[in-house]
Amino acid sequence: KGKRRVDMADYTKAVEDYLLKYPTTAWFELVSGMGVNPFSMGVFLESGLNVKAHWKNAGPNTFEIIKKQLSDDIPVPMGIYSMDAKTKGVRLFNDVGGSPVFNNCRASSHYVTVTGVMEDFHGMRRALEISSWGKRMYLDYDEFENFRDGEKTQYRGLKKLINRVGSGILLIKREK
Fold first, then answer.
1. Separation between Cα atoms, residue 68 and residue 136, nearest integer Å
2. pLDDT band at 27 (very low <50, low <70, confident <90, very high)
3. Residue 49: helix, strand or coil by DSSP?
4. 89-135-169 Cα angle (round to 5)
5. What is the pTM of this model?
6. 8 A C-beta contact, residue 21 and residue 47
């Protein structure tokens, strides 16, 4: 299976190698204030690991794809994105002894790493255990789908499409 943990020196070297290999992309993302985009994340992973990675817009089978990725011991980076700065975002629940507790924390333009999937979990039909800034949290996957599909936003057309593109997962496959 290979190395399961990356220490700070390995991570720093991988970032430096990426910046040297793709200086224009990295410069644009940092200077524009846009931050790292999901397509660059895939390029970054492919440049230092023996994997193929591409962004997948969240769709009807995404929950099952997440379950499969995790069962294959492959991490699942996930984007939660909205062009609407006024949106309340998807609720993130703090982990309190293995139970979700809402503490007024929401995400609308944020990347997380999915670390687990649960069904029928404390009143949520489908839930994701996530890592947000290294902190274990949970989100209601059905609420994420409603958010992604724009049911709670006034956006239509291009803005709704951009929200759907930004809300998805990074599919990672090991090369043989």
1. 20
2. low
3. coil
4. 55
5. 0.78
6. yes
In angstroms, the CA 147 to CA 150 distance is: 5
Q: How far apart are CA 151 and CA 160, in angstroms?
A: 10
* 172 in Cβ contact with 74 (< 8 Å): yes
Alpha carbon distance 109, 112 (integer Å):
10
C-alpha 42/C-alpha 68 separation (Å) is: 19
Tokens of 141: 């996957």
97 CB-contact burial (10 Å; exposed 0-12 / middle 13-18 / buried 19+): exposed
Q: Report the candidate in 53, 42, 57 with the shortest Cα–Cα distance to residue 144.
A: 57
- Quote the crossing angle between the two packed helices 38-48 and 23-32, to the nearest 10°: 140
Concatenate the DSSP letters of all residues of 123-156 into one string.
TEEEEEEEEETTEEEEEEHHHHHHHHTTTTS---
Region class of 47: left (phi > 0), else alpha (psi between -120 and 50), else beta: alpha
CA angle 19/24/29 to nearest 5° reads 80
Residues 94-112: pLDDT tens digits? 989 888 999 888 888 888 9
- Tally Cβ neighbours within 10 Å of residue 103: 11
